Amino acid sequence: MRPRFWEMPLAALNRDEWEALCDGCGKCCLNKLEDEETGEVALTRVACRLLDCASARCSSYADRHDHVPECILLTPTSIPRHLYWLPATCAYRLRHLGHPLPDWHPLLTGDPESPHRAGAGVRGLAIPETEVPEDEWEDHIIEEPIP
Ligand code: SF4
C-alpha cells in the first residue's frame, strides 16, 4: 500500500488500499428502517446476522453475498447512491466528500482498536437480528454513535 494512500481520490485506490480504508466500526452492518413516504432513515442497533457483535466484524466477509445477497457493495461509483444512509463517520463517505479521516481512524493511529475506544464502533451496542423479530426493530432505534 502506498504512503498516505487515504488522501488520494477513492478511484485511485487499489484493492488492498480500498479494503484498508474501512475503520471496522461496524455501523454499516446495523439494520435501518426507512420511511417509505418521507424517505427518512432510522438506525437500529439490530445487526445483520453475519456481524460478530463482540468484535464488530463481519463473520463471513469474503463470501457474505452467498449468505446475505442484499449486502451493499461499496465502490467509488456506488457511493453516491448510498450517501443518504451511510454512517456520518464512514471513511468511504468522508473521503468521497473530500473530508479528512478522523484522528481515531486505524490508518492514523496504527491501532485497529482505536475506533472502539473512541466510541465510534458498535461493540457493546449491536444485538443480533436473530434475537429480535423484525416487527420489533423500531423498539431499538438509536442515534449513531459519533465521538
Ligand atoms: S461504516 Fe464504513 S468505515 Fe465503518 S465498517 Fe462500514 S464501511 Fe467500514
Automatic annotation (TrEMBL):
A UniProt-annotated Pfam family: CxxCxxCC
Name of the protein in its database record: UPF0260 protein ruthe_00724
Taxonomic superkingdom: Bacteria
Family to which the UniProt record says this protein belongs: Belongs to the UPF0260 family.
Source species of the chain: Rubellimicrobium thermophilum DSM 16684
